[in-house]
Amino acid sequence: MARLNVKIADLELKNPVMTASGTFGYGLEFADLMPLDGIGGIIVKGTTLNPREGNDYPRMAETASGMLNCVGLQNKGVDYFCEHIYPLIKDIDTNMIVNVSGSSPEDYAECAARIDALEKIPAIELNISCPNVKDGGMAFGVTCAGAASVVKAVRQRYHKTLIVKLSPNVTDIAEIARAVEAEGADSVSLINTLMGMAIDIEKRKTLLSINTGGLSGPCVKPVALRMVWQVAKAVKIPVIGLGGISCAKDAIEFLMAGATAIEIGTANFLDPAVSIKVRDGINEWLDAHGCQSVSEIIGVI
Ligand SMILES: Cc1cc2nc3c(=O)[nH]c(=O)nc-3n(C[C@H](O)[C@H](O)[C@H](O)COP(=O)(O)O)c2cc1C
Known about the structure:
The protein is built from 8 helices and 18 strands. By secondary structure, it is α/β, with parallel strands linked by helices. It has a single domain (about 5-295), classed as TIM Barrel. The strands form 5 sheets. The chain has an 8-stranded parallel beta barrel with strand order 3-4-7-8-11-12-17-18, surrounded by 6 helices. Helix 2 links the parallel strand 7 (about 95-100) and strand 8 (about 125). Helix 6 (about 250-255) crosses helix 8 (about 275-290). The two termini are about 25 Å apart. The model has no long low-confidence stretch (mean pLDDT about 95). Flavin mononucleotide binds next to strand 4.
């Protein structure tokens, strides 16, 4: 059996497969369907300083080879997470990583600081592509200055592994990656969803309540793969790749493009055990090709 373990800064992963935020709940919901400790990490639901209701329904629409969503970061806030969710997930034997969102750099930093105090959470993933309320709705993650301002504020108050999740809705994702690396990010993950839209022509209305939503699933994979390849060449910190991964072959493509680890999102909705199958498929491929370790294929392109 090939060695599957990888490292993201100080974070040791038993294998490079993780589940993506917003598509795997807090992990617990999947406990009867697959062994949670069989994968390298679980990135739990987006968490904010204060509770959020999320957007009105409808929030999801199916598209060709994918889906649109505008859930809008519905969650009960970081204090609820610390008090009620953390005790339930802290002993799951994998890296439990919290995805953090906010509406100002201070907001992000305060939320991150509260999670820093939780012993069994070894890392956070900063979602910097949610609306920037202070600056009139622009997302932090679409400018170097905006992205850097969040990472700078968080880095001062968060001392464990800091992963920054990048938005694909930009002209040059590599320059955003370099900007967050310069502020002390330990790793970048990409991609978040691509902005999209769908219309019901009989009702002459958009399918989603807020008109637009984030596109995910197999249809985004070629775009995500291209961006991972570009970012992996632009930064020295490890890259985590995601976007449309639904089988081992997809995951191996991301590893070859330069990702040290991968996340699986929308595919969990079709098959709750897909992440375990991807892990096993990577292992079989490595064995069949005479590789001793997954590190032999990372970044070969
Ligand atoms: C229903 C849904 C909810 C999501 N919620 C979050 C979230 O809270 N935070 C975040 O960073 N990304 C969120 N995402 C984005 C995914 O984590 C992932 O970046 C994206 O879907 C691309 O990967 P995929 O094609 O494998 O799904 C969400 C995606 C979906 C489909």
